[in-house]
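Researcher: I'd like a structural prediction for the single chain below. Treat it as a standalone chain; there are no partners to consider.
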Amino acid sequence: MAKQVGFGIIGIGNMGSAHAQMMKNIPNVKLVAACDIKESAFDRLPAEYRDSVICCTDIEKFWEVPGLEAVLIAVPHYFHVDLAIAAMEHGKHIIVEKPIAVHKKEAERLLAAAEKYPDLVRSTMFNQRTLPAHRKLKSLIDNGELGEINRVTWVITDWFRTQLYYDSGDWRATWAGEGGGVLLNQCPHQLDLMQWLFGLPEKVTAQAKIGKYHDIEVEDEVNAYLEYSGNCTANFITTTGEAPGSNRLEIAAQRGKVILENGELSFIRNEIETGKQIRESKSGFAKPETWQCRINLLPESRPQHAVIVENVANAILNGEKLIAPLAEGIRGLELGNAMLLSGLKNRTVTLPIDSDEYAEMLDKLVKNSRFIKKDVKEYSAENMSSTY
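Model: Treating it as a single chain, here is the predicted structure.
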């Protein structure tokens, strides 16, 4: 039998219980422990775990479970940093659900603590990096197949939510309960992919609409304009108030146009680079001749989250390179923070952002939030059951 890494999960809500179900099918992983502040949460675990997994409502007892080597943290956003640091202090490898923190300054605190434990494997759950279309797109960009990128547009407006969704918990869509809206809850994967594929911009100018479609105190629509070094610009548009909505990524580059939509990649390849055509064409209107390139994608052979967990286990067992290192989790978070900072301050923001300025802005919003965490334990347990 293959060597297995003993895993524990903190937070047995919708995501935590899904991770427990998923771990049953990973050969190099064994779930040995689960932790939640509510005893009833353990009823969500698959039946076959009832006799083999040690369930704890006391976090200190959780750390002492025999065979516990790695921890997957699937609790509300505000608790990610402290639990991740505590896990490392107890010698545990970690996977932190997205986002790794609510804002950049907290992420910096986590990463500074993580530097003290270089022998521990530290990952985040950016599972969408494993999707065949995203991997292929990353390869096309990194290998120079597209040439210089001029413009990126990502319209991600299929996050539709009703008022009932937001009313399902008084912590939902509040600064004190969640720390943000569509950028922090629904878009962390897309924000991570933006920086993973294209890097971070130099400037961000955004409009962030607070409660445009819903009775909420956080943003439910964002339109952002990003300026990169060189000639590249980007538009990032997202909302939870549009139906049917779209999820379309379009890249205009010197060698053509790539569109990612409905899980499919299309590449219209220019025979001549656009810049060369602009400079040398003898016609005022002639576009470059094009080829319609077919891009074959391998099928998704494994569930995305399972690939990340297996990758972390392999990193522990044999040093396999991480797909989503924890240190990279700050980048997409900073991009989202920059959009919100720009939108709420009504000005262009230069990256890297001032983490103190953002933390101070958020602190003021939290103090005026309609949600007050009277009982942190009660709030935590309720939020652990949340979905995106």
